[in-house]
Design brief:
Elements: E1 20-22, E2 28-31, E3 36-44, E4 47-51, E5 57-61, E6 67-69, E7 72-77, E8 108-111, H1 114-131, E9 134-137, H2 144-151, E10 159-163, H3 171-179, E11 184-188, H4 200-203, H5 217-225, H6 231-240, H7 250-263
Parallel strand pairs: 1-7, 8-9, 8-10, 10-11
Antiparallel strand pairs: 2-3, 3-4, 4-5, 6-7
Pfam families: DUF3097_C (PF11296), DUF3097_N (PF22845)
Protein name: DUF3097 domain-containing protein
């Protein structure tokens, strides 16, 4: 007959229970033994793969009390086979599962460059497809007056334009004033480049460096941060760290939302 052995461990020495958290993609945790901090990119039987802010991958076992989430000890568990649909889009809007893209409107949103367009697509893409709004890029604003004239904005084809470094007294502000009308709205953020509209904390830096005038700003940023002077690769790294609107500065968020509202206003 099996003999009962009482647990004589004092209550204050027993480990306290910790919450179990599903290792969903994007969840950021720290493995305390190594100090490795990263986002979950894959969870398989018994292991979880994390990616840090430099793109490095590490695989760890799914052990009880094995990770820190916002400084608290947790036990990561494998997500259910049928993950719940996200209730919010990357922009914070209510997600509409299964919604089809609307036929494109005549109205458009123009942004200055390819990086601007890629960032807007990543955060607001779901919203724009549902609303039928197409985003195009201009490669600068010097030719904006002729572009707006050729577009011919009207009540059924409104035009919204997002401009970098739109501050009083600049060339950009004068161009914006020249083309703004009842059916064309030009808004902008104060940053030299769209890179700066991404919060430094999302990228893992203390702040965006100040680059002396006369230098190429993006190349100067790469040099100041010790990154390879490949601005295309640098942008892809920055863009990969943007997961939702929470990673962007309010000065950009408000302007994009205003442009979407303007272009989609009832005719």
């Amino acid at each position: 007959m099996r003999q009962y052995s009482p647990d004589l461990t004092p209550p204050w020495k027993k480990p306290k229970p910790v919450p179990e958290v599903a290792a969903d993609p994007g969840l950021v945790v720290e493995e305390p033994g190594t100090g490795f901090c990263g986002a979950v990119i894959r969870c398989e039987a018994g292991t979880v793969t994390l990616e840090d802010r430099f793109g490095k991958h590490r695989v760890f076992p799914l052990e009880p009390r094995g990770f820190l989430l916002e400084g608290r000890v947790v036990t990561l568990v494998r997500p259910s086979s049928a993950p719940a649909r996200p209730s919010r889009t990357a922009s914070g809007s209510v997600a509409v599962p299964g919604a089809r893209a609307r036929v494109a409107r005549a109205g458009r949103i123009y942004v200055e460059g390819r990086h601007d367009a890629e960032l807007v697509e990543k955060v607001w893409g779901d919203d724009l497809r549902i609303e039928g709004v197409v985003v195009e890029y201009l490669e600068g604003v010097d030719d904006l007056p002729s572009i707006v004239e050729d577009f011919g904005p009207g009540p059924d084809a409104r035009l919204g334009v997002l401009v970098d470094h739109l501050v009083p007294g600049t060339k950009e502000s004068r161009i914006a004033e020249a083309v703004t009308s009842d059916h064309a709205l030009v808004l902008g953020h104060p940053y030299i480049d769209i890179w700066e509209a991404v919060k430094p904390s999302a990228v893992g830096i203390a702040g965006w460096p100040r680059i002396p005038r006369g230098q190429d700003w993006k190349t100067g940023v790469c040099r100041a941060l010790g990154w390879p002077e490949n601005t295309g690769a640098a942008w892809q790294h920055i863009l990969s760290r943007v997961r939702s609107y929470k990673d962007l500065e309010p000065e950009l968020l408000g302007r994009v939302e205003e442009l979407i509202d303007f272009v989609t206003a009832p005719e």
